[in-house]
Amino acid sequence: MNLIIDIGNTSAKLVAFKGDTIIEEVRVPNTDLEGLAVFFNKYPFKRGIASSVIGFTPNINKELDRLNIPILRLSSNTPTPLVNDYRTPETLGTDRLAAAVGAYTRFPNHDILIIDAGTCITYEFVNKAGHYKGGSISPGLQMRLKALHDLTAKLPLVDIEGEVPEIGYDTETSIRSGVVKGLVAEIEGRINAFLEKYPSLLVFLTGGDIFNFDNKIKNRIFADKYIVPKGLNRILEYNNELL
């Protein structure tokens, strides 16, 4: 079995894989991986892979070193099934690359756009030849709401849960409408721009934030919240195949 450790900006995902099948996923604190040992002891793991967008801090490395299996720490030097055309691979978030690998593994020989709606909104593009070309990054929902509050004198911090009218009828609904509908418009605009250039484009949506899209593009979107862990699992297997 494979242990997948996906350390994000707000938490860490621990995922147990048996072959290509997900057995269990849990979330633990990203700073110290509290709960990793308990999860590790539940399954007969043979090897693992760790990706960290916050870096491999002393606390994280300490917890990884306690495991009695080889752990591949994903970096820009790690071989992957994709050709990485990013000009500065050392600055590329390993979660972004893993998402690209996960999507292309599912649909090889296709042009693919991967949209990860989490702390940030990231867009990744892989062409049908298996080249990761890069993407873009913009603020996520919570970041946009917090920025409106922190960078103004009087705007409140609005919870994302609540009514999202087309036209806000008070300050709270105006903020929620602007942020949510503005973000949906951004994502739909990016998808449509890619479709003009790549008519057979497939789109993957992952991450914690869910959106409702125009019916014209709904049938092109595959929702898969495990696309990053699946990509990490494939990278781990790929490196095992190279041994």
Q: Which key phrases capture this entry?
A:
243 residues; alpha/beta; Nucleotidyltransferase, domain 5; 6-stranded mixed β-sheet; 7 helices; globular
Count of all domains: 2
List low-confidence stretches: none
CATH topology of the largest domain: Nucleotidyltransferase, domain 5
Q: Rg to the nearest angstrom? A: 19 Å
Looking at the overall shape, the CATH architecture of the largest domain is: 2-Layer Sandwich
Helix content: 25-40%
**Between the first and last Cα atoms, what is the distance in angstroms?**
17 Å
The overall pLDDT average reads 94
Q: Main β-sheet: number of strands, strand sense, barrel status?
A: 6 strands, mixed
Order of helices and strands: EEEHEHEEHEEEHHEHEH
Question: What shape does the CA trace take?
Answer: globular
Task: Supply the number of helical segments.
Answer: 7
The CATH class name of the largest domain reads Alpha Beta
Counting DSSP E segments of at least 2 residues, the number of strands comes to 11
Structural class, from helix and strand content?
alpha/beta
CATH superfamily of the largest domain: ATPase, nucleotide binding domain
Strand content: 25-35%
In what order do the strands lie side by side in the largest sheet? 6-9-8-7-10-11
Secondary-structure map:
Elements: E1 2-7, E2 12-18, E3 21-28, H1 36-40, E4 47-52, H2 58-65, E5 71-73, E6 83-84, H3 94-106, E7 112-117, E8 120-126, E9 131-139, H4 141-150, H5 171-197, E10 202-206, H6 215-218, E11 221-223, H7 227-242
Parallel strand pairs: 1-4, 4-5, 6-9, 7-10, 10-11
Antiparallel strand pairs: 1-2, 2-3, 7-8, 8-9
